[in-house]
């Protein structure tokens, strides 16, 4: 049967349904097929990122969506872990780079101005692939685009899994011209000592702290500490998951430069994103 609902209708195929080994193997097989065909099962949505002080659009995070022909929309929270488990992250990230490059070129061709960066999520697994930074930069350049147009998001916990490799990879990514943001920051137990050695550009405050920062003084203190760490280390800070005006103004007051979240803009198709945000 067919799950009803369009691309917005996701989380139908949930974590419990994909908990069995045979289901996971079947999903991985279907995902591989989707990656290798051009039948539009996979797509990117774009969520805007803003300068909190000026409200200027500074970037967009590209987030992967999968519309399965039989199961309907499947959340990246379900299929990304399966893809990681099956060693498919390089395939995924190549697909996301290609789609992002084609989108930037399409916007250019249509004369809509996007002056920000595209933020792309990179899985921890790719830290172990020494050729990744060079390959990613070559891939972007093969479209005639500059790696400086891309900000790569690596999770703090993923980098802490192998801090020495992460430091090396971060150096190569920045040499290749990419900007590097540490995603889900605050959940990965890194220390100032490690952060000092990591050539990152930005800390992305995890949404779990932003969610409760108004009511929970511990979370407020954590957010303040992260912003302070950023300032000390000369890193920009961006907060994710901003849902209320109170959160946005508290973050601005604490000195957080950038923000992303449903209050400011939801992830949308490229067409909707351009209509709403690009002139
Ligand atoms: P993430 O990189 O931390 O992305 C942020 C997630 O928070 C996204 O969920 C986004 O839609 C959601 N979000 C944004 N603003 C708000 C808000 O105000 N409130 C709430 N409650 N949520 C908000 P999404 O798209 O489901 O992605 C989940 C995770 O899946 C991402 O977390 C990322 O780790 C992973 N992911 C998504 N696309 C890709 C991809 O192309 N490659 C890789 N490696 N991972 C991806
Ligand atoms: Mg991210
Ligand atoms: Mg994040
Ligand atoms: Mg997150």
In quaternary terms, these chains amount to single chain
Strand line-up across the major sheet: 1-2-4-5-6-7-8-9
The bound ligands are: ligand C2E, magnesium ion
DSSP helical segment count: 11
Radius of gyration: 19 Å
The major β-sheet equals: 8 strands, mixed, barrel
Amount of beta strand: 15-25%
Give the averaged pLDDT, no decimals: 92
Domain EAL: 24-279
Protein name: Diguanylate cyclase
Explain what this protein looks like in three dimensions.
- It comes from Azonexus hydrophilus.
- This is Diguanylate cyclase.
- This protein is of the alpha/beta class.
- The protein is built from 11 helices and 10 strands.
- Strand 8, helix 10 and strand 9 form a beta-alpha-beta unit.
- The termini are far apart.
- The site of one magnesium ion has 3 residues, from loops.
């Amino acid at each position: 049967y067919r799950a009803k609902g369009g691309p917005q209708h996701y989380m139908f195929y949930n974590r419990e349904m994909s908990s069995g080994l045979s289901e996971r193997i079947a999903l991985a097989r279907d995902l591989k097929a989707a990656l290798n065909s051009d039948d539009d099962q996979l797509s990117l949505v774009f969520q805007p990122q803003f300068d909190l002080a000026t409200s200027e659009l500074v970037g967009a995070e590209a987030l992967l969506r999968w519309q399965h022909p039989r199961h309907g929309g499947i959340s990246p929270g379900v299929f990304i872990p399966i893809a990681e488990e099956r060693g498919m992250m390089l395939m995924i990230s190549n697909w996301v780079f290609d789609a992002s490059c084609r989108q930037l070129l399409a916007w250019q061709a249509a004369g809509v101005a996007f002056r920000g960066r595209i933020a792309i999520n990179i899985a921890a697994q790719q830290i172990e692939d020494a050729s990744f930074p060079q390959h990613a930069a070559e891939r972007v350049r093969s479209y005639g685009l500059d790696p400086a147009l891309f900000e790569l998001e690596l999770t703090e916990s993923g980098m802490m899994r192998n801090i020495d490799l992460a430091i090396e990879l971060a150096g190569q990514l920045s040499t290749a011209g990419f900007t590097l943001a540490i995603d889900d920051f605050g959940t990965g137990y890194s220390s100032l000592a490690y952060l000092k050695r990591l050539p990152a550009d930005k800390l992305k405050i995890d949404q779990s702290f932003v969610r409760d920062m108004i009511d929970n003084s511990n979370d407020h203190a954590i957010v303040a500490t992260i912003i302070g760490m950023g300032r000390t280390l000369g890193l920009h800070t961006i907060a994710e998951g901003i849902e209320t005006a109170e959160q946005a103004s508290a973050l601005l007051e604490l000195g957080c430069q950038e923000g992303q979240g449903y209050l400011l803009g939801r992830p949308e198709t490229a067409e909707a994103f351009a209509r709403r945000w690009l002139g």
